Automatic annotation (TrEMBL):
Its EC number is 1.1.1.95. Belongs to the D-isomer specific 2-hydroxyacid dehydrogenase family. It is an enzyme of class 1 (oxidoreductase). It comes from the Bacteria. Pathway: Amino-acid biosynthesis; L-serine biosynthesis; L-serine from 3-phospho-D-glycerate: step 1/3. Transmembrane segments: none annotated. Gene3D superfamilies: 3.30.70.260, D-3-phosphoglycerate dehydrogenase, domain 3, NAD(P)-binding Rossmann-like Domain. Residues 455-527 form the ACT domain. Keywords: Amino-acid biosynthesis, NAD, Oxidoreductase, Serine biosynthesis. CDD domains: ACT_3PGDH-xct, PGDH_4. GO terms for molecular function: NAD binding; phosphoglycerate dehydrogenase activity. GO terms for biological process: L-serine biosynthetic process. This is D-3-phosphoglycerate dehydrogenase.
Amino acid sequence: MAPRVLISDKLSPTAVQIFKDRGVEVDYQPDLGKDKDKLFAIIGNYDGLAIRSATKVTEKIISAAKNLKVIGRAGIGVDNVDVPAATAKGVIVMNTPFGNSITTAEHAIAMMFALARQIPEANASTHAGKWEKNRFMGVELTSKTLGVIGCGNIGSIVAERAIGLRMHVVAYDPFLSAERAVDLGVEKVELDELFRRADFITLHTPLTDKTRNIIDISAILKMKKGVRIINCARGGLIVEADLKAALDSGHVAGAALDVFEVEPATEHPLFGHPNVVCTPHLGASTTEAQENVALQVAEQMADYLIKGAVQNALNMPSITADEAPRLTPFVKLAEQLGSFAGQLTEEGIKGIRIEYEGDVAGMNTRALTAAALTGVLRPLLQTVNMVSAPIMAKERGIQVSELRRESAENYDSLIRLVVITDRERAVAGTVFADGRPRIVEIKGIKMEAEFAPSMIYVTNEDKPGFIGRFAGLLGDAGINIATFALGRHAPGEDAICLVEVDGEIPAELLAEVQAIPAVRQARALTF
Ligand SMILES: NC(=O)C1=CN([C@@H]2O[C@H](COP(=O)(O)OP(=O)(O)OC[C@H]3O[C@@H](n4cnc5c(N)ncnc54)[C@H](O)[C@@H]3O)[C@@H](O)[C@H]2O)C=CC1
Ligand SMILES: O=C(O)CCC(=O)C(=O)O
């Protein structure tokens, strides 16, 4: 059945077309995002949800999203999505990190000009037939200092444009390297220095616990009198009441706001203020940007739903469409090895080490590790998947480590999964040329078996007569043996057997196998 995607915000028709072309069923309901009750009622029918900023994907919506696999944000900020709740539910959250950056940067520059020359007020006055030539005295941008807070994609483009306008740019961004600052031609400074020196300040950070209220009254009082502030990032970055007080006192000469603490902002204490320019979250609203983000989000979501490729996900390692076919059998192997170990581990897991040997060591091991963790945790947490497994392991205090070796002893590629409890237990496997995963080593004992839906795993002392009695019990119980794999350390020492059977394994049969004197452990496994 074709996957189904709901588009609940206004997106370019390009997105609808791309979904259809890629074999994804699409339901375009551009106003649904505003109706949270209806969204809650129908979200369970969809595999994907494509949004802009109007749809609020809360924990409650996610709890009702029984089939949801991916949320695609046609834009950058994902503060309207409860990403931890999505991750816990195993839903990928992806965005389109570059599609609207130029457009948003241009909006910030436009807002700066609008403030410097009071264009909106002058426009309204002229339309009103007032011709107030003496009322509107502006300031030049040339030689002024622009303070950029957050110098990532958008902040960098703003900085480049401002340098083109012959402004001096100072930037505060803890993650901006000294080299990148030099390349951009900006001066990297601390926040207080930026406040002290800037004539104009523009915000380009995401809204996080660290950036929320980054401009409050104490920050404003560090700024030059007559500073002008532009916010085309997120409303919560500025304490709006503090900004109003500073505008009223004249400490801040002007503010240009595209974003507000509460959106849609239909009434606001700053509306009507002569020195405030407002736009209704238009930063990304150009034909070009909307085409870019619609196309990108639809391609990314379709690639994931159809091919398993992951791009620009915030809660899952990337898997390109090119590598997906090669990676897929190893993802399966990693998950099955994890599942094997998870089903056999009863004690608390302290750590998991995944060793990648040979060709597989050069593959996307983050994705493979996520798959292995999924397998280990699934016996405990039925709904865990590659998105949620790393965070679930972390929450449970499981230390996860990876080890990579360029060559594998007997195979082109080998994955060995070591579960650390009070002891270490290892299981290893490979993928043969037929693309099917095989288990090739258990607890250091070589053997070879395919994973099968119903298996019996037995560890025993290597003694004559065991196999006959074991097979006899299966036969008496009417259980057909499909494959039988054996291995041992040395004659008379530890031995294991892994048997594929047709159908379910009754608990009484397992108890009888367990009672064979040479048997140490007998377990039913499912894959
Ligand atoms: N008005 C609109 O329509 C639009 C608004 N946005 C907003 O713009 C924001 C920035 O977008 P991009 O530049 O693409 O993101 P980005 O991730 O490329 O850049 C954000 C920068 O902020 C920096 N940063 C993080 N915490 C910081 C802190 N505490 N102090 C200073 N800098 C900090 C990061 O290091 C990063 O360099 C988005 O998160 C989104 O909220 C984005 C697109 C459109
Ligand atoms: O989709 C929009 O209009 C808003 C864009 C935005 O805020 C973002 O991409 O972060």
